[in-house]
Each structure stands twice: as structure tokens, then as C-alpha cells.
Task: structure prediction
Amino acid sequence: MFNVLSELNWIAIAAGTVALSVLGILWFGVLFPKVYAIALGKQDEQPTPPAPIFIVGPFVCGLVTTIASAILICAFKIESVADGLIFGAIVGIGYLTSTTVNTGINPNIPRPLVYGLVSGSYFFLAGLFVSVILVALK
Result:
């Protein structure tokens, strides 16, 4: 069932990974940077250019997530965009968002619910975007 690596569309995986990166840049850098800073307790700090790990790390993690989703979409034989959306919602809420909220619930995040809302909603949308891209380009 999971011997699907030869069936994966690597162009779709690349497109999904780039889409996650663009969404992340827009989400955290343009749409919600102030709210995200509040969630992290850094609202009074001046923004500084991100270190390379904060650019490369999310890209690599997005690639891993996209490959995992591509494997599951292929293994489960998801063919329609509607089913891709359902799969993306399940993965987005069930794994990505819940893990993000759980990560935020620790003593190092001063506003865990805000962190969960901002980051979790990004990861929910990411699950939807990647799944639709992978199914549409399959």
C-alpha cells in the first residue's frame, strides 16, 4: 500500500513546498507579524532580519510535510479536489493544528492561545493548500 514513491509527482511536491513557503512569508511576515510577536512575548522588540535557520528550517519542514501528504494521497487513492480538501482539513486540523497548539502550550510561550490561533490557522490552511495542489497536479 505504501510503495508509492515511484508514483509521486515531484513537480507537485515542489509546487506544494513553495506554496507553503509563500503562505508562511505572507502569514507571519505580512498579515500577522504583530499578533505573532505578541504571542511570543516579543511585541516590544525591534524586528531583526531572520537567521538562516528561520528560512531554511520551515522550508525543509514544509518539504517533509508535503512529501508525507503526497504519499498518503497516493496510497489512499485520493483523486478529486473535493476529497483532497477533506484530506487536507483532516491533516490540517488533526495533525498540524493540534500539534502546533500543543507546542504553544508550554511555559516558554507567554500567550499560548494566541500562538495556537495564529500558527494553527496557518497550518490548517497549509494542509488545505498542499492537498489541493498535490491532487490537482497528480
Observations:
- The chain has five helices and no strands.
